[in-house]
Amino acid sequence: MLWSDPENKPPKELRDTQEMLRRLGVLMALAMVVAMLVIGVR
Fold first, then answer.
1. CB-based contacts of 26, cutoff 8 Å, min separation 6
2. CB proximity list for 9: less than 8 A, separation 6 or greater
3. What share of the chain is helix, strand, coil (3-state, %, to 5)?
């Protein structure tokens, strides 16, 4: 990316949505790990 390029910032709503999806993805990954452990213990 060049210094002369215009700043490429998405609108606030899009950034908020991306943040929420990122958190949701992390939570889903953790839930899958916990589920695998629970299934493995039984």
1. none
2. 15
3. 70, 0, 30
